[in-house]
Amino acid sequence: MQRIAEKLKQKARDLLETGAVDAVLGWKKGELPYDATPYFFSDPKTLEDMVYDGFCGSNLSKYLVEKCRKPGKTLVFLKPCDTYSLNQLLSEHRVDREKIHAVGIGCDGMIDVDKLRAKGFKGLLTIEEEGDILRINTLYGENNSLERQEALLEKCLSCKSKEHKIFDERIGEELSGKIKEADRFALVAELEAMTPDERFAFWRSWLSMCIRCNACRNACPSCNCLKCIFDNVQSGVSAKANNTDFEENLYHIIRAFHVAGRCSDCGECSRVCPQLIPIHLLNRKFIKDINLFYGDFQAGEFPPGTDDAVCSPLQRFDFGDVEPNVISKGGGKK
User: Fold this and answer.
1) What count of other Cβ atoms lies within 10 Å of the Cβ of residue 229?
2) Sign of the torsion angle spanned by Cα atoms 80, 166, 51, 29
3) Gap between the Cα atoms of 93 and 74, Å rounded
4) Helix (H) or strand (E) holding 177
5) Model pLDDT for residues 128-174, shown as the tens digit of each residue
6) What is the CA angle 59-79-281, rounded to 5?
7) Secondary structure class of 144 (helix, strand, coil)
8) Which residue, 138, 147, 208, is CA-closest to 180?
């Protein structure tokens, strides 16, 4: 990815210096090798701190919501999966297309640092990518190696597409290899096979660890309300300090319902969770059911304004829609 990273820097520098854009939304290197952070660059001199490597898993489209409310045009770098989120935000009029210069960049999967830790790599110092192999140096040893496939983020293991759905130009698209065969609904099917008590125990075991940091909400492109209900002290739902089972369930279930039909399945909610809660499975269950009852639908697959663009099945009605008793009782017909 180093070669592509240099091209991204040059593109950002050219557009900033010519005044074509006022800011560049990319990733800034952190103190640690796996700590790439979303960042707005406005001065070409600061671009030396911009990176693009296997730890740039964050979806940058969410940060355009606030940025587009301000004057100026922004260059944003988007991996293929991120472009679904941008399309969805455009369809909801949350961002202004005229204020965005979208550069699609190649991606062959992003690395999950928590998987590296789970495999025993502690005190990470440097991580070099050599094709399909990761060379890992830690405080306790050098020249450790691991197959890249073993350390990919969950969302990369069930990648929807290597094709950019919206862009003004592309850089390094050849990096995006072929999609590896995967059933992204496999874990949902396992949950569905459980008894109600088993499913309840599964979610309580995970949600009981929620610290209500709101990281999932803050990173989610579909969570883009100007005023979130969970920030409204008059709503009666700000019971974080109480740390009750009810409040933990309420928060995640309400959030899942709010993004149903709009979630592009980018996986940011689970990626940023400090407790490693598989939050995306709630959203993916809704996606699976929407596909089952209303036909296959992928949020953000097509840009708004195109012949192929359609709104979510939950935002439209026709007489062929599934009847309630099909879902609640398992019978009936469409």
Assistant:
1) 15
2) negative
3) 17
4) none
5) 888 788 989 888 877 688 998 899 999 999 898 899 999 999 999 88
6) 50
7) strand
8) 147
pLDDT tens digits, 96-135: 999 999 999 999 899 999 999 999 888 888 888 887 889 8
- The DSSP code sequence of 194-208 is S-HHHHHHHHHHHHT
Distance CA 57, CA 152 (A): 10
User: What is the amino acid identity at position 91?
Assistant: S
* Residues 221/62, Cβ–Cβ less than 8 Å: yes
Q: Which two tokens stand for residue 93?
A: 């009029």
Tokens representing residue 72 in the block: 């100026």
Residue type, 107: C
> Identity (one letter) of the amino acid at 89?
L
Place of tokens 């606030």: 66
CA distance 145 to 125: 14
Contact by Cβ (8 Å): 51, 32: no
